[in-house]
Amino acid sequence: MVKKEMIAMLLAGGQGSRLGVLTSKVAKPAVAFGGKYRIIDFPLSNCINSGVDTVGVLTQYQPLRLNSHIGIGIPWDLDRNIGGVSVLPPYEKSENSEWYTGTANAIYQNLEYMESFNPEYILILSGDHIYKMDYEVMLDFHKANNADVTIAVMPVPMEEASRFGIMIADENKRITDFEEKPAHPRSNLASMGIYIFNWKTLKEAFLALKDQPNLDFGKHVIPYCHENDKPLYAYEFNGYWKDVGTLSSYWEANMELIDIVPEFNLYEEYWKIYTKSEIQPPQFFSKESKIERSIIGEGSEIYGEVYNSVIGCGVTIGAGTVVKDSIIMNQTTIGDNCELNKAIIAEETKIGNNVKLGVGEEAENDTAPHIYNHGLVTVGEKSFIPDGICVGKNSVVFGETTAADYEDGILASGKTLIKAGDE
User: Fold this and answer.
1) 151 alpha carbon, distance to own chain's centre
2) Which backbone phi and psi does 305 adopt, to 5 degrees?
3) What DSSP assignment string belongs to 301-316?
4) Which residue, 337, 376, 341, is CA-closest to 357?
5) What is the pLDDT of residues 111-170, one digit of tens each?
6) Rounded to an integer, what distance in angstroms lies between the CA atom of residue 128 and that of residue 135?
């Protein structure tokens, strides 16, 4: 029987609906980040840097790109005979096939996978946060307190606490109570959705709750452990942590990478972030190009000007084009004499010549103001914008558009243009 002290279960099934068209064809953890990475690279790299060499990745929504990105785990040194990384999609059972319905249900369906490693501890992670964390330090804390469950928490400003699941802990960090998005929070320790369970405790909770529909950690498993007097502890984390669940937080987290002294440093030797890299030629910058405070991925060709932007791999930016405060993902081509301000352009998009994105005054988005805001322009993957088009702020374009789709060559601020079949 194989014996692993701690194995990780990484929840990567999220649709990420608040990322709008960025996740219409791809699961949120597979969205590009920081030029050459994908969001899931961060928790996977944390695992290998923390000495956790067995990771089950639970996929569900649009798993194709995620599966091919992870493969057999070679970039994270997770291609092992025993343990390593395993992609765990929902599978059909003989009596009824079921999708994962809640965060805990997804893990409950993979009981046999976990059982096969005979672990003492199970680390539960989510695949859509950007952070660096040593899970071994958290495990030491868990053991030192004889905890059954340890929940990673992060202090947040009191005025923001009502947006989170809040833990109330005594002076020894033992959790005495918790509240989900409380109107009047009694503490500012927000749950990060990172848990360490004793395997015995988790199994007991699962078996007791197995008939609970939409089985969820925050709503069912943690309350069950608390009600049954299992010792729950709060492990306080004070490093950089960002939930990139909205377009504006995704844009901000990318922009923070290019601060003069980045709060989140991708270049630290001792805590590398690993990713699957395509074999690309080096970058090319023409004599006329100008680049300031930007990340430029491998294989990109820059003939224009790029300021304060994150450019992926294999991107072409034409002559006379000026890109500012933007994120341009892999294999996108931008024509000549364009102007881009605060644009997020997804992979494999083509933009014609003399196109202006992010111009004029802001207006509220007409279809999803809760998604498309903060003055950003979002273009979904494999889209096409023809020559000479002007697009305003808080707008979204998705699909192979033609000149006829734009009245007088303009898509006003706050407008949505999604071609049928591209939903």
Assistant:
1) 20
2) -120, 140
3) EE-SEEES-EE-TT-E
4) 341
5) 888 888 889 999 999 887 889 999 999 999 999 999 999 999 999 888 888 888 899 999
6) 17
Is residue 359 within 8 Å of 44, Cβ to Cβ? no
CA atoms within 13 A on the CB side of 305: 10
Q: How far apart are CA 294 and CA 291, in angstroms?
A: 7
Q: Residue 416: which region, alpha, beta or left (left: phi > 0; alpha: psi -120 to 50)?
A: beta
Residue pair 338/321 in contact by the 8 Å Cβ criterion:
yes
* Token pair recorded at residue 68: 């091919």
How far from the centroid of its chain's Cα atoms is residue 147's Cα? 29
Task: Read off the pLDDT of each residue in 36-53 and give the average, rounded to a whole number.
Answer: 88
Instruction: Give the pTM.
Output: 0.86
Helix, strand, or coil (residue 277): coil
Q: Tell me, what amino acid is at 370?
A: H
Q: Give me the residue label for tokens 């991107």.
A: 315
β-strand pairing of 241-243 with 129-131: antiparallel
Tokens representing 13 are 């099934």
Residue type, 300: S
Which range, 37-51, 74-88, 394-408, is most confident? 394-408
Which class for 171: exposed (0-12), middle (13-18), buried (19 or more C-beta within 10 A)?
A: exposed
- Give the integer Cα–Cα distance in Å for 146 and 143: 5
If one counts every other C-beta atom within 10 angstroms of the C-beta of residue 128, the result is 26
Other beta carbons less than 10 A from residue 113's beta carbon: 16
Q: How far apart, in whole angstroms, are the C-alpha atoms of residue 87 and residue 105?
A: 16
**Which residues fall within 8 angstroms of residue 386, CB to CB, at 6 or more apart?**
352, 355, 401, 402, 403
Is the alpha carbon torsion for 70, 74, 80, 81 positive or negative? positive
Q: Phi/psi of residue 3, each to 5°?
A: -130, 120
306-346 per-position pLDDT tens digit: 999 999 999 999 999 999 999 999 999 999 999 999 999 99
Among the listed residues 238, 234, 236, the one whose alpha carbon sits nearest the alpha carbon of residue 170: 234
Give 292's Cβ-side CA count (13 Å radius).
Answer: 7
Distance CA 329, CA 314 (A): 9
342 Cβ partners below 8 Å, 6+ apart? 251, 324, 325, 326, 358, 374, 375, 376, 377, 393
